[in-house]
């Protein structure tokens, strides 16, 4: 076992459901956030904005085509805002101030419907609703979790499970830890984020490294390639190539 980095980068993945695109949100140092777009079909990783501050990941989402991102953030001056951008760039197409990041953001219900939490937006190519209006339309109870349902996660009681197709291995999330039923050694407790992309490849982040497992490799518990973002210098753009396994 290699020793763990003293303060490894924390990386969260937002996988588009209708396109082979994953928005990568990397945080290191603690108050610096970098956004990248990972095109998993062409295996390209494109650097975008650096932010002095943090993005509230629990209220952030990516559109089905991977071209838009709704997010909420807090900058270094303590100001909080929410907006919609074209990742990997955070420059907002439309935005609004919010009391705290957890009070903003939103999610895509489907490819054409964007639900916004406590704010309104104009000029977007989507049908936009506030969260309260959407709940009233659907009659959903307060505990309804739209992102879990939309991404296909199932509640198994003691864990959540995700299987994009019947011939895929099961991705499981239990007590803050991801795992693969058939290959328990593939993921471990230091994996930050894991998902399936629109092509059925498993993507995950661990100790500052992005890894992709294409379906043909995943059937055998193997990884396909990785990008090492752990040593990316503050403020610089990624310019490396994937390391094939």
Category from helices, strands and their pairing:
mainly beta
Molecular shape: globular
Tally of strands: 20
How many DSSP H or I helices? 3
Percent range for β-strand residues: 35-45%
H and E string? EEEEEEEEEEEHHEEEEEEEHEE
Overall pLDDT = 93
Question: Uncertain runs with pLDDT below 50, 5 residues or more?
Answer: none
Question: What would you note in describing this structure?
Answer:
The strands form four sheets. Strands 1, 2, 3, 4, 5, 6, 7 and 8 form an eight-stranded antiparallel beta sheet that branches. A five-stranded antiparallel beta sheet has the order 16-17-18-19-20. It has a four-stranded antiparallel beta sheet with strand order 12-13-14-15, with no helix packed on it. It is globular, with a radius of gyration of 18 Å. The chain has three helices and 20 strands. Strand 2 and strand 3 form a beta hairpin. The mean pLDDT is 93. The protein is mostly beta strands and 245 residues long. Helix content is 7%, strand content 42%.
